[in-house]
Amino acid sequence: MSDPVLQFIAKRRSVRAFTGEPVDREKLEVALKAAMAAPSARNSRPWRFLVATEPERVKAVCAAHPYAKFGDKAGAVILPFGKKTDYRWFDQDMGAATENLLLALANLGLGATWCGMPEELQAQIRAVVEIPEELFFFALIPVGVPAGEVEARTQYDPERVYWETF
Ligand SMILES: Cc1cc2nc3c(=O)[nH]c(=O)nc-3n(C[C@H](O)[C@H](O)[C@H](O)COP(=O)(O)O)c2cc1C
Fold first, then answer.
1. 81, 141 Cβ separation under 8 angstroms
2. Cβ atoms 50, 129 nearer than 8 A
3. Half-sphere exposure of 147 (CA within 13 A, CB side)
4. pTM for the complete prediction?
5. pLDDT on residue 14
6. pLDDT digit string, tens, across residues 64-95
7. Which residues, 6 or more positions from 157, have their beta carbon under 8 angstroms from its beta carbon?
8. Pocket flag, ligand 1, residue 13 (CB < 6 Å)
9. pLDDT at 63
10. Domain 16-147 belongs to what topology?
11. How confident is the model at residue 1 (pLDDT cuts 50, 70, 90)?
């Protein structure tokens, strides 16, 4: 993969093994700036981000999600959240910000994985990190210093591309 743009994008892979080292706060702030560079419908920017770095809190949040338990050695966990009710573009705006966040983290040398946050998991996470009832966790992202390499890749499939017409 020689194209630098593609290299940057393809570097984002789901990383689920961490060394247990703390995560540099400045890097987290850069990634949050990248997240907030995302587009949103009518520039609504529905996003908020709960960032936990205290080891006990990070562990407790990751343990509360059935598919994020690998985050027990993460140095941080980021929870994008916001007011979902009565805002029809919530998922699209939050998805754009979350992907920007992940792209930045990967290119800052950090590992992370987007863990989905359906309705039925909201209460479990809320029991660990409280946010007001009207707000919704969009994703749960363990972040850490990667233990090992995950290969950059695109899954480009020309059969999924329709030039001009279907
Ligand atoms: C909406 C969404 C929810 C996901 N939920 C989880 C999850 O709960 N736990 C997990 O380990 N990975 C989760 N993933 C990561 C996917 O498994 C991963 O992105 C996919 O296998 C492709 O691998 P890659 O991210 O390395 O390209 C989720 C990804 C998305 C976009």
1. no
2. yes
3. 13
4. 0.98
5. 98
6. 999 999 999 999 999 999 999 889 999 999 99
7. none
8. yes
9. 98
10. NADH Oxidase (3.40.109)
11. confident
Which residues partner with 144 through β-bridges? 111
Testing ligand 1's pocket by substitution, the residue of 16, 100, 115 carrying the most ligand atoms inside 8 A of its CB is: 115
User: 24: CA distance to ligand 1 center in Å?
Assistant: 24
Note whether 138 and 117 are within 8 A (CB).
Answer: yes
Closest CA to 78 of 93, 89, 94, 91: 94
Backbone region of residue 165 per phi and psi (left: phi > 0; alpha: psi in -120 to 50; beta: other values): beta
What six digits make up the tokens of 34?
Answer: 């990248």
The tens digit of pLDDT for each residue in 45-55 reads 999 999 999 99
Beta bridge partners of 82: 47, 136
Distances (CA, A) of 60 to 43, 76, 91: 34, 11, 25
- Mean pLDDT taken over the chain: 97
